[in-house]
Design brief:
The protein has one domain (about 10-205). Helix content is about 30%, strand content about 30%. The protein is built from six helices and eight strands; from the N terminus they run H-E-E-E-E-E-H-H-E-H-H-E-E-H. An eight-stranded antiparallel sheet has the order 1-2-3-4-8-7-5-6. Strand 3 (about 70-80) and strand 4 form a beta hairpin. The chain is globular, with a radius of gyration of 18 Å. The termini are far apart.
Length: about 210
């Protein structure tokens, strides 16, 4: 059977999940295969701890203002084994969905993730995050790190913050490098969460 993604080395469960996810996305959006595009994922901090990152499938979502993408990503990591194990490390692969968009606004470098109790405690003694005085709900929910406060404050407007608030996943991560945004999480691929990511990037592309 021909699948719209690379199946080499994948087990049947992963293939079935990719296929189910692709079919759900295709039923909701006008999507097409991209061919070989280098999305420069290793430039993003969220992948810095990985030995290798490869795209198993990439799909363009046609949008009225700009195109955005859904990526099936294979992440290769080295993990430490237990005490006395030989070899001391072993290969570990994860399969994730990420959505990517090229936005018109220049955000600088931005990292957005759910705020933890540890973050709140650190902020008391060493405030580093960008807060929004007019949007306490957003600031209490998400931890926002930026390298250019002026750019980020201008780009992360009410429409963008509302779109982020509507992503119902407790481990969501958004990273932006200038005009390139990715959103995802480090859990295994699931059709429902992939649909949320696609909804987010199409919404952001329409407003940002």
């Amino acid at each position: 059977m021909n699948y719209p993604f690379d199946t080499v080395g994948l087990n049947s469960e992963t293939i079935d999940t990719f296929d189910e996810t692709y079919k759900l996305l295709k039923s909701r959006f006008q999507i097409g295969l991209t061919g070989n595009i280098d999305f420069h994922l290793k430039d993003f901090e969220v992948f810095r701890g990985c030995t290798h990152v490869s795209v198993r499938g990439s799909y363009v979502i046609k949008n009225a203002r700009t195109d955005c993408y859904i990526l099936f990503v294979e992440v290769h990591k080295l993990k430490k084994g237990g005490y006395g194990t030989v070899p001391p490390t072993y290969d570990y692969y994860e399969y994730q969905t990420w959505a990517l968009a090229y936005v018109k606004k220049d955000f600088g470098r931005v990292l957005i993730r759910p705020e933890t109790l540890a973050d709140k405690l650190i902020e008391l003694v060493h405030p580093v995050e960008l807060d929004f005085d007019d949007d306490k709900a957003f600031s209490d929910t998400f931890y926002v790190l930026v390298n250019d406060r002026w750019k980020a404050d201008m780009a992360i407007d009410r429409n963008f913050r509302n779109a982020v608030m509507d992503v119902r996943h407790e481990d969501v991560v958004i990273e932006i490098i200038d005009h390139t945004l990715i959103i995802g999480h480090r859990h295994q691929v699931s059709p429902e969460s992939s649909l949320q990511l696609a909804d987010f990037v199409t919404r952001v592309c329409s407003t940002c």
